[in-house]
Amino acid sequence: MWLRQLRADDSERYAAFQASLDSARRDRLVHIALAQAEQIAQRDSTGNDADIVFAAIASDSSSVDILGIALAIPCSDANAAEIAIVLRPDVEGHGLGRLLMGKLVNHCRDRGLRELVGYTRSDNRRMIELGRAFRFVVQTCRVPEVVSLRLRLQPSAQEE
After folding, report:
1. Tens-place pLDDT, residues 100-155
2. C-beta atoms surrounding 17 within 10 Å
3. What is the model's pLDDT at position 70?
């Protein structure tokens, strides 16, 4: 398995990945993340590289499959990004989310982003625990049954 950026030639693999997701992963928040990743997968090599999408890829002698994705979509102020991680149900609980999160956090920090924010259902214990392991702060949202996860990567200009 390897982690790399999602590319335009991944569109068929991405379609198979999306089809492998159960209905619970197709709620509104995940749907938005998947739509963004699908747009990136369909771009050619000259596309906008502001969005960051990493794919966990498994390869054996007969196929190459996407096991999960992690994405960061820069916000309008360009100092923050909204993030999401989506895994195939059959690979949850084996550390893949942790690998993708680490790759995403490090890449965003290296690009100079100051803050990451993600949203998850308040009953998604695995995602909340993963966020806390990376020192995200969990906060309630205005949206019922949703929490935000925020991580300060670098101090703001006012704090420096």
Report:
1. 999 999 999 999 999 999 999 899 999 999 999 999 999 998 888 999 999 999 87
2. 26
3. 93
Encoded tokens for 100:
């993708």
Please check whether residue 141 is in contact with residue 147, taking contact to mean a CB–CB distance below 8 angstroms.
yes
CATH of the domain at 101: 3.40.630.30
160 domain residue, yes or no = no
Count of the separate structural domains present in the chain: 1
Report the b/e string of 25-44 with b at 16+ CB within 10 A.
beeebbeebbebbbebbeee
User: What pLDDT score was predicted for residue 160?
Assistant: 53
**Residue found by looking up tokens 């991580």 in the block:** 151
Establish if 94 belongs to a structural domain: yes
- For the chain, list the strands marked E by DSSP: 2-5, 52-59, 64-74, 80-87, 115-121, 137-140, 146-152
Residue 159 lies in a domain: no
- CA distances (Å), 1 to each of 26, 46, 134, 157, in order? 25, 26, 22, 39
Q: List C-alpha distances in Å: 64 to 60, 99, 100, 129.
A: 7, 19, 18, 30
- The domain containing residue 148 runs over which residues? 2-152
